[in-house]
User: Fold this.
Amino acid sequence: MHPNPIYRQTEAKRSLGFAFATGFGQIMVSADPVPLVAHIPFLQGQQAGEIELHLVRSNPIARLLQNVQKPAKLSVSGPHVYISPDLYGFKDQVPTWNYVAVHISGTLRKLEADELPALLDRLSAHFEAQLAPKAAWKASKMTPEVLQKMLRQIIPCSFKIEDIQSTWKLNQNKTDTSRLAAADAVAQAGVGSETTALAAVMRAFDEEVWGQ
Assistant:
C-alpha cells in the first residue's frame, strides 16, 4: 500500500466492493523460505465477512491447510497506467504510475469436501452471469464420472476478512484540472480496456464520493 495518506482515503466498503467486482486476485500465505502465492477467482461468501474460493489440491497452500487455518492476504489489482509529466499541463512534474489496489487480510481455512459442489455452482453462476445473454454453463452439463474426477482434484476454502487496506492512486495530489487533463490524455493515447478503465476512474474521482 502506498504510504501517502491522500491515496488511502477510500472507504473499506467501496474497496471491498471493487475487489468483489474484480473477482480475481492473489492469495498469499507465509512459508519458509518465501511466501506462497496462488492466483484465484473468488466470490463474496454466504456468511458476512467471508470470501469463498477453491484451490487445486496439489497447490502448496492447500497442503498447508490440511489440519490448520492460516493467516493470509488477498491482493486484488485494478487498472493501472504510466502517467507522463507532460500530461498535467504545467512544468516541474515527474513520471508516476496510477493504479488501484486492495489488500484484504484475514484467515484462510479449508472447508469440508461436501461443501465443494455448492461452492463451485455459486462461483460458476456468478461469472457465467457476466457473459449473458449466453446460456449459463452448469456442472450438470458434465458427465458425472468426469465431474467427480475433477472435484477430487480441488478443495473448497473460506477466507475470513479481518482488515481491508487500499490504494487508489489517481493524481489526487494534483488540481482537478490537471487530473482530468491527464485522464483525457490517457484515454486518447491508451489502447485496450486497461487504460480506458483507469481513465474512467480518474475522471470519476471525487473526495465526497470516494472518501470516508
Notes: The radius of gyration is 20 Å.
